[in-house]
Design goal:
Strand content of chain B: under 5%
Helix content of chain A: 40-55%
CATH superfamily of chain B: Transmembrane di-heme cytochromes, Chain C
Shape of chain A: globular
Shape of chain B: globular
Largest sheet of chain A: 4 strands, parallel
CATH topology of chain B: Fumarate Reductase Cytochrome B subunit
Oligomer: heterodimer
Distance between the termini of chain B: 74 Å
Number of domains of chain B: 1
Number of helices of chain A: 26
Helix content of chain B: 55-70%
Strand content of chain A: under 5%
Largest interface: A-B, 78 and 63 residues
Number of domains of chain A: 2
Radius of gyration of chain A: 23 Å
């Protein structure tokens, strides 16, 4: 509620145990709601424009359909024993104290309706098993609290049955879309992808201009004509990256990093206007159909351009969709070169070159950065990099260690598989949800504060467009610098010594005499 | 009369338990898993998944990561229950296998630790604010049911002995459709009635977590989506025309 929101002073809360368990504050976040999608946003995605008259029956019918088509949903709605293992694991609960932000309580918002309509006990003795009808109040709760879940899956790590609240909140959002109660932010963005090819609605011409100005910038800086090719037929690699990389900071600095690495690797590559977006908000709204349509753009772009490889830029949920779902949704990708992983993460690409000794760095160029790394949830808990489980933790860190002299990890209970969401994931990165975004970031901000105090950490690197955008907004609220968030490939970009660049010449000039005397 | 009532109830309860569980398991198995959603880092081979699941159901690995107290109480209860059930095989097998005979003293101890584990779990529901919030009437009732099964069982060993030879004859009689009289001790009848209740509610309650965990996609899927194409049976709509 408003009173609670105004009481929350981030700067006064930034010191403390990152995973401190708060006092329960019933109803604290009941008023947090994203804007409702307008009719044309919904209709473009195949949903009714506004809440339909028979929404109750339609919702129950849709829940039945989802139960029949998603084993996870069915098993998870049955299996919870209310053991409490998840109750203190959600960053939104830690930041707000609202008990409905405990994963089990969030699930129960849907589970109680499931029990009422789909289980024998819920039909006969609803009071005994916590079964409830889907009333307008319950629907209000759904809209509020299923939009306070970033689908980060931290709870699923700790659940003895692996119950994944992301699956539940995706189902709930799908049901709400089906009855015409869509969320404006996500649905509007999916519409833009269908219309313009990217989340930002960036037209091809603007994209072309942006890339050209980046080329000029890089050449000015390094003296090397690094290209950022667009729609090049027959290139070897199609790079698909979040559109924020064309627009925002520190995203763009990351894009410059990819371009430099791809240039130095000597491969031919291209971006695509048609698939100028790696993100897939179809996942956030739980709509398999929309997720598939968005994913198929990428397959089509790869086919049309005749590329051999598919590489993804720094984006958390996009990597989940790419790594875990793309082949299922838009495959088979048998037209690509089977000698390379399909798809490949830009971090894997860069790290391979580092391991083969094909990239040179001047790490001192990053000496002003004392770095830590924020594991993005969808990369950490819903995907992999490299050949071994956990490669998604090691590879980005290996890149940072190769490019920076000062690297420090945050507390172990806040990284790797136990990483904390930035607070803005899962379709919550919209201004009207700023209150819950700030509060949800508290655990991560505290972990950052610890390494800032202990090790003098100044910057946090991430490989997710949403994390980067969220932290740019949130860091100042907690008393950090706004530019304290950086891209992993920004660090690569700063330190890389491109063949023939002024930086390489300077570096060699400085180091050669020393080598000779040694 | 008493014998007939309990005999019929046991057949009925066994049928409900077995058929109910079988139907539920069939439903879980039949429902498609449209996408690969293992919680990573996950094993990359099927063998690795079998190990992960084995650790999950024997050691409660995820719960251990979450909360050591809940893990300790829950693990003690479940292991004790398993030992107690094993001990009860002596009422259903003739002759009694040696290993079952050897385990009898351990089984008695397990009876106590089972009740202790349950009471500790129940205590958490009352004391820990967050767990109290999520606890409903059925959660208390389930614990009450299990605790009373344990106590009534122990009472036959330590308070008022039951003619266990007759009890065994009754159950063997049930199994061979040759009914033998059931002793009418009150603690035995309470114990058996509660067990009947448990058998009947099992397929309709949160006890479905037992089969459910094996069907949990976040735990039973391998992290191999780049190595092996995952295309579940005819679920996804045909691709839109390009």
């Amino acid at each position: 509620m408003a009173a609670v929101s105004s009481d929350f002073k981030p700067k006064e809360r930034v010191v403390g145990d990152p995973i401190e368990i708060p006092q329960i504050a019933c109803g604290a976040m009941a008023e947090s709601k994203p804007f409702v999608a307008k009719a044309d946003h919904n209709e473009k995605l195949g949903f009714p424009g506004e809440l339909v008259d028979d929404w109750h029956d339609k919702a129950i019918f849709r829940l039945g359909e989802l139960l029949d088509n998603n084993r996870a949903l069915r098993v998870y709605l049955d299996s919870c024993v209310k053991c409490g293992a998840c109750t203190d694991k959600c960053h939104y609960f830690m930041g707000t104290g609202d008990p409905k932000n405990m994963p089990v309580a969030r699930q129960d918002l849907l589970r109680k309706v499931y029990r009422r309509h789909f289980t024998w006990a819920g039909k006969v003795v609803p009071w005994l098993v916590g079964a409830e009808d889907l009333t307008k109040e319950v629907l209000d709760d759904w809209y509020s609290y299923f939009h306070q879940c970033s689908q980060c899956r931290r709870c699923s790590v700790f659940c003895p049955y692996g119950i994944d609240t992301a699956e539940i909140s995706m189902a709930a959002r799908d049901i709400m879309d089906t009855i015409g109660l869509g969320q404006k932010y996500s649905n509007e963005i999916i519409g833009k992808v269908f219309n313009m090819g990217n989340n930002l609605g960036l037209p091809p011409k603007a994209l072309k201009n942006t890339l050209e100005s980046l080329e000029e910038e890089i050449e000015e800086e390094t003296g090397v004509p690094v290209k950022l090719p667009l729609d090049v037929q027959g290139a070897d690699i199609l790079l698909v990256t979040p559109s924020a990389d064309f627009f925002a900071s520190p995203h763009m600095e990351g894009l410059i990093g990819y371009a430099k690495v791809l240039h130095e690797a000597g491969v031919s590559w291209t971006l695509s206007t048609y698939a100028s977006e790696a993100a897939n908000f179809g996942m956030f709204v739980g709509s398999q159909e929309n997720m598939q349509k968005v994913a198929q753009r990428i397959a089509k772009a790869a086919k049309d351009l005749g590329v051999k490889r598919l590489v993804f830029g720094e984006c958390g949920h996009a990597w989940r969709v790419a790594y875990s779902f793309l082949d299922t949704l838009a495959g088979p990708f048998d037209f690509l070169d089977p000698n390379y992983p399909v798809p490949q993460h830009i971090c894997e690409f860069t790290n391979d070159l580092i391991e083969k000794g094909k990239l040179r760095f001047d790490k001192s160029k990053n000496d002003e950065f004392r770095l830590t790394f924020h594991d993005s949830c969808n990369v950490a808990r819903a995907s992999r990099m490299g050949d071994k489980p956990g490669g998604q933790f090691e590879i980005p860190r290996a890149i940072l260690r190769a490019t920076c002299n000062h690297f420090f990890d945050m507390a172990p209970e806040t990284i790797h598989e136990k990483t904390l969401c930035c607070g803005g994931g899962g379709g919550l990165l919209t201004d009207e949800l700023m209150d819950v975004r700030v509060k949800g970031a508290q655990p991560r901000m505290r972990a950052l504060k610890e390494v800032a105090d202990e090790h003098g950490v100044t910057h946090m690197a991430a490989i997710c467009a949403i994390c980067k955008a969220q932290f740019s907004k949130i860091l100042p609220q907690y008393g950090f610098e706004m530019d304290g968030i950086v891209s992993v490939h920004q660090m690569v970009s700063n330190a890389i010594l491109l063949t023939g660049s002024t930086q390489a010449e300077e570096f060699d000039a400085q180091h050669r005499p020393a080598d000779a005397t040694a | 009369m008493l014998t007939a009532i309990f005999a019929i109830l046991f057949y009925l309860a066994a049928a409900i338990l077995l058929v109910g569980l079988a139907l539920r398991i069939r439903l879980y198995a039949k429902t498609p898993a449209p996408l690969k959603i293992p919680t990573t880092p996950a094993p990359i081979t099927r063998g690795g998944v079998v190990l992960r699941m084995a650790r999950e159901v024997t050691l409660f690995e995820s719960l251990f990561k979450s909360n050591k107290w809940t893990w300790a109480f829950g693990w003690v209860f479940h292991v004790s229950l398993a030992v107690v059930l094993f001990r009860h095989l002596r009422y259903f097998l003739q002759p009694v296998p040696e290993i079952v005979a050897i385990m009898q003293p351990v089984g008695v101890l397990a009876g106590f630790s089972m009740v202790a584990g349950l009471l500790a779990l129940w205590g958490r529901r009352l004391v820990v604010e967050r767990v109290r919030y999520i606890t409903g009437p059925s959660d208390h009732l389930m614990l009450a049911l299990l605790v009373m099964i344990g106590i009534s069982g122990l009472s036959m060993k330590f308070v008022a002995h039951t003619d266990i030879v007759a009890v065994k004859a009754f159950f063997l009689g049930l199994m061979y459709f040759d009914w033998k009289p059931l002793p009418s001790d009150i603690n035995l009848l309470v114990h058996l009635s509660l067990v009947l209740t448990l058998m009947i509610v099992f397929p309709f309650s949160k006890l479905l977590h037992a089969p459910g965990v094996f069907f949990s996609p976040t735990r039973n899927q391998a992290d191999d989506s780049r190595e092996r194409r995952y295309a579940p049976r005819g679920l996804l709509k045909p691709q839109a025309k390009a």
